[in-house]
Amino acid sequence: MKSSSIKIVLLAVFSSVICGKLLAQSNHVLNYKQPAEFFEESLVLGNGKMGATVFGGVNSDKIYLNDITLWSGEPVNANMNPEAYKNIPAIREALKNENYKLAEELNKKIQGKNSESYAPLGTMEINNHHTGKASNYHRELDISNAVSKVSYEIDGVKFTREYFVSAPDQIMVIKLTSSQKGALSFDINSTSLLQFKTEIQNNVLAMNGVAPIHENKGYEVVPAFLKEKEIGTRFTTLMKIKNTEGTIVSSNNSLGLQNGTEALIYVSIATSFNGFDKNPATQGLDNKAIATTHLNKSFSKSFDKLKSNHVADYQKFYNRVSLDLGKTTAPDLPTDERLLRYADGKEDKNLEILYFNFGRYLLISISRTLGVPANLQGLWNPHLNPPWSSNYTMNINLEENYWLAENTNLSELHLPLLSFIKNLSVTGKVTAKTFYGVSEGWSAAHNSDIWAMTNPVGQFGKEDPMWACWPMAGAWLSTHIWEHYIFTQDKKYLKNEGYPLMKGAAQFCRGWLVTDKNGNLITAPSTSPENQYRTPDGFIGATLYGGTADLAMIRECFDKTIKVAKILNVDADFISQLEADLTKLHPYQIGIKGNLQEWYFDWEDKDPKHRHQSQLFGLFPGDHITPLKTPDLAAASRKTLEIKGDETTGWSKGWRINLWARLWDGNRAYKMYRELLRYVDPDKKKVEKSRRGGGTYPNLLDAHPPFQIDGNFGGTAAVAEMLVQSNETEIRLLPALPDAWESGTVKGICARGGFEIAMEWNSKELKKVTIFSKKGGKTTLISGDKKQNISLKKGQKLVVNW
User: Fold this and answer.
1) What is the pTM for the complete model shown?
2) Residue 199, Cβ neighbours under 10 Å: how many?
3) What is the DSSP letter of 268?
4) Pick from 53, 146, 71: which is nearest to 364 by CA?
5) What is the CA radius of gyration of the chain?
6) pLDDT in tens, 504-519
7) HSE-up of 155 (CA within 13 Å, CB side)?
8) What is the DSSP letter of 386?
9) Neighbours of 14 (CB within 10 A)
10) Can you give the pLDDT at residue 522?
11) What whole-number distance in Å separates Cα of residue 127 and Cα of residue 441?
């Protein structure tokens, strides 16, 4: 072979390696060789309030638009079933008599309305006036700057589109270009599945509409929906084109550009939502004025200025954490092909990092609106009747959305949930009294919505208690307040906001507990979220007394409330009551199989592999079960997970990965993390069984299935949990490191006590750790058999060569 030929071959190989690093081996870019056909292939953008789902089509580019505050309904009537609590004594009597069938029927009387639904705002279309066939198509989302791009060529002309949704300017911007002067011609339109009307004035395409007032599936809204003082949440979408060349044209319902070279499309949206307790029609915000203000302010700014504002705002969150897992040999492939290759068992460490980074990207894109946390689909919903109303499901899913907030250095993004808890406490006081007969504190149940609904759902007795009748969401959510404090050390928040909410949740739990025949405190009636037992005589039900999950959450609630009260030096008498109650709670039971019992008795599950593992709450997200403090309970938790197996849905798998990490089993956690990334085909007509079920869609969104965002968040949180675990007094480094991550570095992971960690490891051994203290304090670093006590001042950093 001639030397020139050798040079050409080497150059080709070198170029392939470089491309691999930029594309397939990238840990921050999703890329594809074709437009999206399904929602599960699209690329999602958001600024914490406005969401855009970009398909990237050639002739027609479809973009779903959402606003996180656009829901059906209006402020909830918390007093909807004022005498429901009067049924509690009869349920307890049936349980006392071991008549579970009767208790199950009576429990249906402790139900109210179902939640409202998160609504799709509309669909924007960019119709391009192309005539030829596209080639060299490329579509990507760069999560290091939250910018999406599309490019392709037609008849020698290169067309590009660039998209981002800005938080500082509250605007979506789309930049369209052609490489040939005058070759850019397109028009845009906007439609909605809701009641809407479009008009064009002063070259602005405006769509105004209203969300339904009821959660019923009919979504019936009176035809005259645009009349003044109409019921329901109003919304506005405004679109305007800025061009340097060509001519802006319009018709009755579209706006366009002819013969341009470069253009910007500005998209502004707003709703009339003004708080969970404000009627959005009579007390709502002026959605038209807000959308107009954002549009006009942004329109006066250049693309470069808007983009630099957006990137700087986004990166102040995203750049806090970085992860490297060592060398990868993964080839140059688009993201969907990477997933397929990975599902076959191939190595792609940067895909594992990309999924971790993507979870952080999603939370930054979603969680910026106080009182309105991420819902089941985060921010992105194209459906009039979304799965499970895309609501707040509070027996795991809402909480799992925020497991990554503190430990992956996104504490500020926890605030939408924390402020939502405050809203729940308002309606929850009424719910506690009217549904449960508890006069102190507040409670919340299985489902909620933007109106902070707290009643048990079930359509007033029509639905199954196994999921409808569950009052422990307040106890679970209160632990998020503790987590926010212990990571941030923000005592001011704790005193002014957090502790009163925690106390209220604990007060409800105290009022809900009763004494069993052994003199222990239990809950009655009780259910374990969405699971059912099978009694020895064959009865299958959900209603019982003393469920393990209830008591685990109450233990965690009481324990953390006691700690907070002592930190603030308040409520000594109340602390004494909680401490006394803790000692009287019905203890954990280990079943004949060695498992941690889910039920008061050692009953079988109807489904032994049930997706929920609520009885393990004390292991994770709680912390009162650990391999060191409670080895027997930790072993029973392990046995429970082994019985349930590893095959489960997206969010459930995310939870189980965290549980295995807390058991310090890195290889089992990693095995399930790989399974979480299993490719799921978005085309439901395809029949390959290996590409169905739980896993990950081509756009990296979680497949429950269908799409639920909690699996993404659970997976990201689990990676951090595998690398760093902590409590008030110690930080464990690499506690669940799998063999596959033999070497690596991580920077920016947060630990309890107000610390930030950077680490380097090699051959599974910690080499160097850097610890930074945000507020000053003491902790003990632990890795393997080594320990080191640390005391730092506020703002101090210490480097330890392990």
Assistant:
1) 0.95
2) 11
3) E
4) 146
5) 27
6) 999 999 999 999 999 9
7) 6
8) -
9) 10
10) 98
11) 55
